[in-house]
Structure formats: C-alpha cells, structure tokens
C-alpha cells in the first residue's frame, strides 16, 4: 500500500542548503528531491514542451514507481481550448514518452472560462487521446461546483474515459486575509472554489494549498486525512500535492502529511529517509 506525496516543483532556492544539498547541478536536483517525495507536479510543461533529451534526464533521476502528474501545455488547453491542437499534442506526447510508467497521469488543467457548455469539446478531446496514458482533468468554472447538473455531466464525461477530476483545495488560503507578500500574490492568482473530495477512479489526485504558517496549513488539511485514509482502505492509490504560497516548507509538509495519514493506516509503506542536505564528499 502506497501513498504518493509531492510538491509543485522539485527545485526551489529556499530549499538549497537547508533541505537539499547545495550546490547541485540541475541534472541532479530531481534525484535529490525524489529522496524526499515520491511524486511531483509537472507544471513546467504547461509553459513549454520540453525536449525529449530533457525528459530522458528526468527519467534517469527517478525510479520507475516515482509519479509525474504532467500538465498539458497551455497552447492546447488555454489557447486552442482543446480544439485544433493535434500538432502540439503530438509533439508533447512524443517528448514525455521517456518517462514511461512514471507518467501517472496527463493533467488537463482548463481555464476558468471553460464551462458546462464546453463539455462536448472535452469529451471529444478525451476520446481522441491515446489510451497509452491515464488522464486527469482540473476545472475552475464555478458552475461545476455549485450546480449539481453541471457536476453530474462533468463526472459522466470523465467516467466515460476513466479520467479523474483533480480538486484544487484553496479553502484554507481564503479563510482569512493574507499576511505575507506570497499569500497576497496567491490571493490574486489562485481559484476560490468549494472543497471537493469525491474520487472518480482508483487513482485520485489532490492539490492542497495551505498558508505560509505551518500550523495553519496543517489545521486546514485535517479533513483530508480521513478522506485519503479511506481511499487507501478502498484499494485506491492516491497522490497528494502540498502547496503553500511561498512553498518554503512544502517538502517537509508533504512528508508530514504522509506521516499523519500513516498514523491512521499503519500498513501504509513509509517514505524513505531523505538525502542529507550536505554535499557528499570522498572523505
């Protein structure tokens, strides 16, 4: 039984020398991160399709059971809105192929303007995708959360292709006014939507955003501990990503979330011990 946990990135300046060894060449940073967490959000691919050789280095730094949830490029999801994007989609799928089984899901994050009237487009897009990969969809249109009919239609569209609905829980962030520059920035950029905890497949994916203060973040994820423990007992294989506005302690928080779930499900496999933050030497 395994719970995969991770962060929004595998390299952050505030981690270097404090949590991860420093200096580390770029080709070794993911390897160091993977001793802390066993999953990562593939956010960089949203902005540009990486070269195949770059993706080969990602695969070389991780074990086959490490999980990437890889985001489709914005040219496909936001600019083309899932229509007429065959060429950028082909290039993307070819680029990520070296990840092999590490690609746990391809993540279709849709803009807030993509609403219930667009579900036919989403269904057509999912139907054309190769069955080589599993898929997960994140929506941000409020109707999918506030209107039961729209919610049912989306769930039906996803179920037809065994695709998961990815919730982004930002409730804790918006519970009280921001107290730092990072929190103020997150307030302007992150979606303000109700919490959703229903899994559609055996592979639920959760994105949770807390606060810069550790105690606020931990307090906010309490409802998720029983939910994730329940998924595990049902035989599901969840992946949970822990965010904070500045992400300074996201690595340690992801491991703490895993530990707190394991306290409820003792048969859960533990995470390995992380790499020491001192650079390795010969003597």
UniProtKB/TrEMBL annotation:
| Pfam families xrefs | DUF72
Report the InterPro entries cross-referenced here.
Answer: DUF72, UPF0759_sf
Q: Which residues cross the membrane?
A: none
Q: Know the name of this protein?
A: DUF72 domain-containing protein
